[in-house]
Amino acid sequence: MNSRISELHHGGIVPKQILIVDDSSALRRMVRCWIEEKTDWKVCGEAENGKVAVRLAHELQPDLVLLDLVMPVMNGLEAARRIASVSPHPVMLMFTTRYSGQLVKEAEAAGIKEVLSKADAGINHLLASMKTLLHEPPADAA
After folding, report:
1. pTM as predicted
2. 15-134 is a CATH 3.40.50.2300 domain
């Protein structure tokens, strides 16, 4: 039985599960730290490329997958297409240095709900977007 389902049956509160996908281990660590410090979510996994992300998304069934675009082995767009075909449950958000209007169109076609620029969106903007996509109230609404 899925552990989240098991927790629900026992009355526990289940934190949102996040999969972080980026070829930069430093960025993955930074985002993980911010998520763990600023939210009650759980980072259920990390992947350094799209191929690993597809496998982990299928195995872990995260609520949200945070994807980079440019990665070795398989890029974020192809990973998103494959994740959507094997695990339609997670919301996908792209966080990239290669932001453009054309990328937004391609990302939406691949099943990605939002694209944020690493250059323009700070970590607080990233977390706010994640909260919106996960249908959680903003921190200042509490």
Report:
1. 0.85
2. yes
